[in-house]
Amino acid sequence: MTMTLRSAAIGDLGAICRLRRQRTAWLTAKGSDQWSVAGHGLPIEVFARAVGRAVEAGETWIVEVDGEAAGTITVNERTDPWLWSDAEVAGAVMVHYMIVDLRFAGFRLGHRLLSHAAAVACDLDREWVRLDAWTANTGLHDYYRRAGFRLARIAESAIGPSGALFERRTDSWDPTDRPRLPLRSDPSVATPV
């Protein structure tokens, strides 16, 4: 099995939306309202527009397994203003829309994507990788803890359903375990992960 990480291109938007739909259906079957419209998640059309903007800005990456899109992550310096303070945002990169195809669960693709977020943070001289997670999804919280993140707090002022704020220091990752890609997306460049 060959795994590579590459920058996303606008042609990947369909695959990214497929991953989102797959994961939303799986979460719903497990009794979670995460990413569902009923749970106040973004409708797929709004999600697609947001990810499309991130792809165009060079902030989204794809991990492939044997040439097939198996996961995605968006890493940038933006967040909803009611979640993190300006000082917290200034010292961090933010993870958004990390999704791994269920067929590849257990292959640590999510950990590899998060490691790439740490590489982006290093390139930008940021001390933290931060993210917001669905507040009610304690299984997801456990996943991030196993990935080395700590719960900073639950944002009581969160307007949406993702108010569990997690963070991990950039220097806590093993530098030899970080994929090396350009800081901003270049779809012609891929690296083994």
Descriptive account of the structure:
InterPro entries: Acyl_CoA_acyltransferase, GNAT_dom. The protein is α+β, with helices and mostly antiparallel strands and 193 residues long. It has one domain (3-192): Gcn5-related N-acetyltransferase (GNAT) (Aminopeptidase), CATH 3.40.630.30. The protein is 31% helix and 25% strand. It contains five helices and eight strands, in the order E-H-H-E-E-H-E-H-E-H-E-E-E. It has helices at residues 13-29, 44-56, 86-90, 109-123, 138-146, and strands at residues 3-7, 60-65, 68-76, 92-100, 128-133, 150-154, 164-169, 190-192. The protein has an eight-stranded mixed beta sheet with strand order 6-7-5-4-3-2-1-8. A hairpin with a 2-residue loop joins strand 2 and strand 3 (68-76). The radius of gyration is 15 Å and the shape is globular. The protein starts with a strand and ends with a strand.
Feature tags:
single chain, 193 residues, alpha+beta, Aminopeptidase, eight-stranded mixed sheet, 5 helices
Brief summary:
This protein is of the alpha+beta class and 193 residues long. The protein has helices at residues 13-29, 44-56, 86-90, 109-123, 138-146; strands at residues 3-7, 60-65, 68-76, 92-100, 128-133, 150-154, 164-169, 190-192. Residues 181-185 have low confidence and may be disordered.
- CATH top-level class: Alpha Beta
CATH architecture: 3-Layer(aba) Sandwich
CA gyration radius, whole angstroms: 15 Å
Our measurement of the CA-to-CA distance between the termini, rounded to an integer number of angstroms, reads: 11 Å
CATH topology: Aminopeptidase
Instruction: Report on the biggest sheet.
Output: 8 strands, mixed
> CATH homologous superfamily - what is it?
Gcn5-related N-acetyltransferase (GNAT)
Order of helices and strands: EHHEEHEHEHEEE
Q: Report mean pLDDT, rounded to a whole number.
A: 89
Low-confidence stretches: 181-185
Number of domains: 1
Anisotropy-based shape: globular
**Beta fraction of the residues?**
25-35%
- Strand element count: 8
Name the helicity range. 25-40%
Structural class: alpha+beta
Major beta sheet, strand line-up? 6-7-5-4-3-2-1-8
Distinct helical segment count: 5
